[in-house]
Amino acid sequence: MDQALNILTARLLAHRFIPRRDPLARRALVDEAFRESLERRLGEVGLRLLENPYAEHIAVALRPEMEDWVFGEGENWLSNNMGLPRDAIALLVVVWALIILPKRERQISRAEEIGDTQVDMFGAEKPIAHGDDVSVGVPEDAVYADFGRQLGGKMRFATNLGQLAKLGFVVRRNRMIQEGPLLDLMIDYAKLAPRIINGALAEVLKLSGTRIAVDEPVSAAEDGTDDEAGDE
After folding, report:
1. Half-sphere exposure of 198 toward its Cβ, with a 13 Å CA cutoff?
2. Which of the residue ranges 61-65, 161-165, 181-185 would you say has the lowest mean pLDDT?
3. Which 8-state DSSP code applies to residue 208?
4. Counting Cβ atoms within 10 Å, is residue 76 exposed (0-12), middle (13-18) or buried (19+)?
């Protein structure tokens, strides 16, 4: 176990995230003893495992009690540890709402259709559906047309979108914005979704025809999702 644990820990630290279908990642999801050892190893250096049954990857983030020591306090505290400006964070939230909320609705609907209501925090052999059939991208031009002016104009939009892609939040293909490895891991669905569904952005999304998931069977404590965007 020690060698496998060393390899998985090193890969998580070096790559930030790995696919959940990876053999060692799957072992961490189905082998409780191995997962506990991994979490203990990460905890010894101030880190924690990020695992969301709805996401296609696993990753690592700082433990909350380490954030002040790493990122500073008071005036030195950053709104996020990725160095993103406010307009980039706003773009991240918009993209998350356009991609993850509809995806979550499709995943919940699919689970209900097959009668799968059991939540397995360690990952069942038949996990929740992932992939292109549930995660659908959005056109860059459409996002810019709807939100570009509010997000700083064409130059800022392109720059910030490139930064989000570089950090692993999104993937850009043929002028389509698609879900990146960290988009569904680094943002806490349980906290952000109600704010969007019940807030001002909900009206914008409704006008654009985007459906939003209103039922979430997995709490933040159960799915291990992070607290805020960029908390790595």
Report:
1. 7
2. 61-65
3. T
4. exposed
- 2 in the Ramachandran plot: left (φ > 0), alpha (ψ -120 to 50) or beta? alpha
Q: What is the pTM of this model?
A: 0.71
Which of helix, strand or coil describes residue 160?
A: helix
Give the residue from 131, 228, 230 showing the smallest Cα distance to 178: 131
> Which 3 state secondary structure label does DSSP give 11?
helix
Q: DSSP readout, 80-146? A: -TT---HHHHHHHHHHHHHHHHHHHHHHHHHHHHTT-----TT--SSPPP-STTT---EEHHHHHHH
Give the start-to-end residue ranges of the domains of the chain: 2-71, 86-217
CA atoms 146, 165, 91, 223: torsion sign = positive
Question: Residue 46 has what DSSP assignment?
Answer: T
Q: What's the burial of 219, exposed, middle or buried (CB within 10 Å: 0-12/13-18/19+)? A: exposed
**Integer Rg of the chain from CA:** 18
CA 193/CA 151 separation, integer angstroms? 20
Non-local CB neighbours of 23 within 8 Å, separated by 6+ positions? none
pLDDT in tens, 123-178: 444 445 555 556 778 999 999 999 988 888 999 999 999 999 999 999 999 999 99
